[in-house]
Specification:
This is DNA oxidative demethylase AlkB. This protein is mainly beta and about 220 residues long. It has a single domain, classed as Sandwich (Jelly Rolls), CATH 2.60.120.590.
Length: about 220
């Protein structure tokens, strides 16, 4: 069964930069369905350690679903058809996740979004993500759809150069950030996750980023 995108009037989209839109709480209304879909993936592809390009361990753990997955190992990182650790193909992307990501992208002004990968990052208390931009995708005109579940985080938004000034804002459970166009290659990151307890996910945050890794965007 396909659930509607929302069943109550949501907060209006908030433009945070040219091409970047924040949909406050838009994934919260079906939070149980989001979490169940992620758990379906995790039953096949549990969270595993990730590493930087220099081989240092990252504080987040990762899983993937879709035709491709983003793998970060000591031997390098990028998109692969299968898990380098096991040789097994990544789990299929649950229909619910794909449909919701497509609908959210359209609400943010990006119709025709067709993700072939969903990277799932798990943040425990203290975990963080340094400034980076998503540059491994074949078509960098395709937007990124990022969904936050669980504990809130402080999200860092910069510019097109790593040295550009940054600003920070809070992402809550159910918030969706979509960016493309002039903002597609903006540097961004996450401050260390603060201690707390979420009523659905406990002391952790999940971040789902939907991408078009090897497809061309025709929005």
């Amino acid at each position: 069964m396909t659930l509607p995108l929302f069943d109550a009037e949501p907060l209006p989209p908030q433009v945070i930069a040219d091409g970047a839109v924040l949909l406050r709480g838009w994934a919260a209304v079906h939070a149980h369905a989001w979490i169940a879909a992620v758990q379906q993936v995790l039953a096949q592809q549990p969270f595993q350690a990730a590493f930087t390009a220099s081989g240092l361990p990252m504080s987040v753990r990762t899983s993937n679903c879709g035709e491709w997955g983003w793998a970060a190992s000591r031997s390098g990182y990028g998109y692969t058809r299968s898990d380098p650790a096991t040789g097994m193909p990544w789990p299929a992307m649950p229909t619910f996740l794909k449909q919701q990501a497509q609908a959210l992208a359209a609400q943010a002004g990006y119709p025709g979004f067709d993700p072939d990968v969903c990277l799932i990052n798990s943040y425990d208390v203290g975990a963080k993500m340094g400034l980076h931009h998503d540059a491994d995708e074949k078509d960098q005109t395709a937007p990124i759809v990022s969904v936050s579940l669980g504990l809130p985080c402080t999200f860092v938004w910069g510019g097109l150069q790593r040295s550009d000034p940054v600003r920070s804002f809070r992402l809550e459970h159910g918030d969706v950030l979509v960016w493309g166009g002039a903002s597609r290659m903006v540097f961004h990151g996450v401050r260390p996750l603060q201690a707390g307890q979420h009523h659905l996910l406990g002391a952790q945050r999940w971040n789902l980023t939907f991408r078009m890794a090897q497809r061309s965007y025709r929005g």
